[in-house]
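Encode chain A's predicted structure.
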Amino acid sequence: MSKIALVTGATSGIGEAAARLFASHGYRLIITGRREDRLNALKESLNTEVLALVFDVRQQQAVEAAINGLPAAWKDIDVLVNNAGLAVGLSPLQEGVVDDWERMIDTNIKGLLYVSRNVLPLMITRKKGHVINIGSIAGKEVYPNGNVYCGTKHAVDAISQGMRIDTVQHGIKVTAIHPGAVETEFSIVRFKGDEERANAVYKGFEPLTAKDVAESIYYVTTLPAHANINDLVLMPTAQASATVLHRNG
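Encoded structure for chain A:
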């Protein structure tokens, strides 16, 4: 039977690209997200068996119900891609919007924990599995006005290290992938729909695409059972650090 990959935040960007790539390699897909219309559209477009689960990773009970309610044929999850995440706002801490903080903390940290807490026991039972946590260069460096977002992605980095220690005796692989600038809906969400401000983020250089990151996600799953990539930082060629980019013009 084909392997199973569970991808959170599959309705756009990196999550959608990852789902498409895993499907193209014959995986059966469990895709999750908040936007039912987009999730169903993705399901219909994939040439593989797909189970679509509509829930918000911030809601612990919804996550538990969805994972615990999986049909027996879908419980043998081989790959978990903890992709759901977002940045909201870009302001000094002393001017921060608390609701923005809550959204980032609840999605980027608690959502990842809720999903992992419910999927890992399924992998441990089988003594195999691969968890891929999508971090950010913001989890390696802190940049001006990134305070809370950077904090959440630093947490993803630390949680990934802790998860690897806690599951190593069960044969579970854990990989953290930290992209730099990726042109998706990320900046549109961060700037709350301000397209002009969002588009300016990617002007003058060629950013990564969602497909670029998806290819790295898939690649780490192709190594032999005895080999694992623990940590991977992926950047556009024009980006040297979180804040140093070479822009043309």
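Strands lie at 4-7, 28-33, 50-54, 79-82, 129-134, 172-179, 231-234.
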